[in-house]
Specification:
Distance between the termini: 25 Å
Number of strands: 0
Oligomer: single chain
Number of helices: 10
Radius of gyration: 17 Å
Order of helices and strands: HHHHHHHHHH
Strand content: under 5%
Helix content: over 70%
Structural class: mainly alpha
């Protein structure tokens, strides 16, 4: 790749890493638009740009959130009660979404998803329920919600934190704990999607390289920067006030939603 392309990948990875650690997201909402711009320059065929951008984004999510979730785990915020109820649904849903990328044009989903992001941003700045985390919540409801989040994440190339964090705070989890669990959930989403993208890329004949639809050079460039910056983002998450963290998260969702609508 050209030097300027490498620099853009490193810059995008830096932002993605900070967001992954600080807000519990996989960074895909930054990486996918970046790759849609970069991949045609690199030489990826037009019909494979969006699928490859989504696949490569989720591959970087694996790297970014592995570092971020490890940092969160050191603070003792990964409760087994919630992990066993959330992670399986996220994994199965992510594989479903990754499969759909190869058979459905994802463009129509962008406008719908942007509306969802705006609604989530509004919800984040509204008063939240307080009290002890809910332990009597229906297991089926949590499993269904996790599956839907995983499917959307695999379909549009994000780690799922933009949906998982509000979902968990709805269950009255403290925002920092929701971010920590979401970070591990994003790692599960990324890994599950990558397995499906590699298999689909070869089985469908649309492989762009040895790793199916994943563009390896872009993956490496973005991942290096994001992995280095994720622990810093995780440290910031534990130092910032909760209300300020929610406002940052809401502002981020609105910015991404506007970008999806107009692009």
């Amino acid at each position: 790749m050209l030097l300027s392309t490498w620099l853009l990948c490193l810059g995008g990875g830096t932002v993605a890493g900070l967001l992954a650690g600080m807000l519990g997201i996989g960074g895909g909402l930054v990486i996918v638009p970046l790759l849609i711009y970069l991949l045609p320059i690199i030489g990826v065929p037009p019909e494979l740009v969006v699928p490859s951008a989504i696949a490569t984004s989720l591959a970087t999510v694996c790297m970014t959130t592995a570092s971020a979730s490890r940092s969160h785990a050191k603070h003792g915020l990964m409760e087994k009660f919630w992990l066993i109820r959330v992670l399986p649904g996220l994994s199965i849903g992510a594989m479903t979404g990754a499969y759909l990328v190869t058979v459905i044009d994802p463009d129509w989903l962008k406008r719908i998803f942007s509306i969802v992001l705006i609604a989530l941003a509004a919800r984040m700045v509204m008063p939240q329920k307080t009290g002890e985390p809910m332990t009597s919540v229906s297991k089926r409801l949590v499993a269904l919600g996790s599956y839907i989040i995983g499917t959307i994440s695999g379909l549009v190339g994000i780690g799922g934190g933009a949906l998982t964090v509000p979902f968990l705070t709805k269950m009255r989890l403290p925002v920092r704990q929701a971010i920590a669990i979401s970070s591990l959930g994003s790692f599960i989403i990324g890994c599950s999607s990558v397995v499906m993208f590699i298999a689909n890329g070869w089985l469908s004949g649309k492989a762009t390289g040895a790793f199916g639809l994943i563009h390896v050079p872009a993956w490496i460039g973005i991942s290096v920067a994001s992995v280095l910056m994720a622990p810093l983002g995780a440290k910031l998450a534990h130092k910032l006030p909760v209300k300020q963290l929610q406002r940052v998260f809401a502002a981020f969702l609105i910015i991404v939603a506007v970008q999806l609508i107009f692009k």
